[in-house]
C-alpha cells in the first residue's frame, strides 16, 4: 500500500493543533488524524498524545502477533482518552483539552479496513467516480441534520458547526464508532481534519483524488487555504491496492 500525507497551520492560526500518524507493519497499515482543542498549545498536546499513544499501543500489540483490529481500535482509543484526560485534570494549564480522532487500520491479508472515529475529523472512501463519507461527525449541527431540522448545506454554514459533542479526553469514558470496509481494486481512503472539509466539498476531493491520485494532498491543502484557511488542515490519502512507500510532503 502507498500513502501520502501533509499538515498545514492554515492562513489564520499561528500554531498547528493537528497531528497525524502513518505506520506500516507486515500485516497491517495504521493511520490516524487528530485535531486538538483547548487553551494555549493544549490542543496540540492533546492531539500529539492521542496519535502517539495509539501508535505505541499498535506496535506493542503487533509484536505479540496477529491482532483483532476492532478490539485494538477500542482499546487504543480508550487508552488515548485516559492519557489525555489524566493530563487535563492534573495540569491546570491543560484543563479542558481534548482532541478528535479518526483512524484506519487495514488488515492487508484480509483486505479489510477498520475505521474508528471520535469527533468531526473524517474518513472517506474514494474509488474512481465515487466518494462516500464513512464516519459520522459528533457535532451539534450533525445532530440537527439527523433530526431533520437543518440540511447538510445549512450545516456547513451554521454558526455552531464547530461544537463537538464527543472528543478524546473530554470525559473519563469515551465511545468510539467503528466501521468495517471490504477493500476493492482502486479503493483509496482519505482521512482529514475539519480544516479541509470546512473549505472544500466532497466533490472537490473526488475530482482531485480521481485525477491526481494520492499525490493531490498538497493541492487539497492549497485549495482549502485559498478558500479561507481558517483552521489547521491535515490530510492522509492511502491507495489501498498500490504497493509502494509512505511519502510525506
Task: Give the structure's gist in a few sentences.
By secondary structure, the protein is an alpha+beta fold.
Summarize the structure in words:
This protein has helices spanning 42-62, 69-90, 140-146, 152-157, 194-197, 202-212, 217-226, and strands at 2-8, 18-24, 28-37, 98-99, 101-107, 112-118, 122-127, 130-133, 177-182, 188-192, 233-239, 246-248. The chain is an alpha+beta fold. The protein has a six-stranded mixed beta sheet. Strands 2, 3, 4, 5, 6 and 9 form a six-stranded antiparallel beta sheet that branches. Strand 7 (122-127) and strand 8 (130-133) form a beta hairpin. Helix 1 packs antiparallel against helix 2 (69-90). The radius of gyration is 17 Å and the shape is globular. 48% of the residues are buried.
Secondary-structure map:
Blueprint: E1 2-8, E2 18-24, E3 28-37, H1 42-62, H2 69-90, E4 98-99, E5 101-107, E6 112-118, E7 122-127, E8 130-133, H3 140-146, H4 152-157, E9 177-182, E10 188-192, H5 194-197, H6 202-212, H7 217-226, E11 233-239, E12 246-248
Parallel strand pairs: 1-12
Antiparallel strand pairs: 1-11, 2-3, 3-4, 3-5, 5-6, 6-9, 7-8, 7-10, 10-11
Helix pairs in contact: 1-2
Brief descriptors of the model:
globular, 33% helix, 249 residues, 6-stranded mixed β-sheet, 29% strand, 6-stranded antiparallel β-sheet, alpha+beta
